[in-house]
């Protein structure tokens, strides 16, 4: 069973389109995240949700809107896609209530904006 | 700015040799974690070391932490071709809950 699953794995779309990436975790964790990995493999956190509440929102353009319908799901919606949005997006989860705990990552969604 | 810097950026060794990767960070941390990323895949957690710990072992992995120098090292002993991957250190900075701040990564190539 996949612990953190995200779909789609690959996404190719044109500039200006709106797209969504879905993420689900079956680990019972209370915290979920979105990370972005650029072409130089640099990983940076975008958002974090704890029990459906936004707790971290890095300086991400407001074209990016996370949505957490329940604590097992954290979807990422991106409006008006730009070339610079091309990257690999990773969803992750952890149990916030347990300090010093690791994060579990999904396989990533490679977004290519053309 | 990026919290962690890793060196070397790339490392190529032969199977059976040991691989050492270093990570430096800038601010006070709760813990430091190491992750592995195989090409085209997600990150897999390897080991976590708390700020009050100095050394930790897990199988062929040995991690050290020197909070006075704000640095950590990951040693992989008796490397195997399957260890070929990118390795990232990540810190949980004091007061930032569970937010992971990643280093720049070390690309390890283990050849037969």
SS elements, strand count of chain A? 11
Largest interface: A-B, 27 and 27 residues
The N- to C-terminal Cα distance of chain A equals 34 Å
What is the helical fraction of chain B, as a range of percent?
A: under 10%
Largest sheet entry of chain A: 7 strands, mixed
Shape of chain A: globular
Classification by helices and strands of chain B:
mainly beta
In round numbers, the mean pLDDT of chain B is 92
Strand count of chain B = 11
Distance between the termini of chain B: 38 Å
* Beta-strand residue fraction of chain B: over 45%
Proportion in β-strands of chain A: over 45%
Shape of chain B: globular
Radius of gyration of chain B: 13 Å
How would you characterize the overall build of this protein?
The complex is a heterodimer of chains A (114) and B (112). Chain A has 114 residues and is mainly β. Chain A contains no helices and 11 strands. Chain A is globular, with a radius of gyration of 13 Å. Chain B has 112 residues and is an all-beta fold. In chain B, a hairpin with a 2-residue loop joins β6 (55-58) and β7. Chain B is globular and about 45 Å long.
Annotation keywords:
heterodimer, A: 114 residues, mainly beta, four-stranded antiparallel β-sheet, 11 strands, globular, B: 112 residues, six-stranded mixed β-sheet, five-stranded antiparallel β-sheet
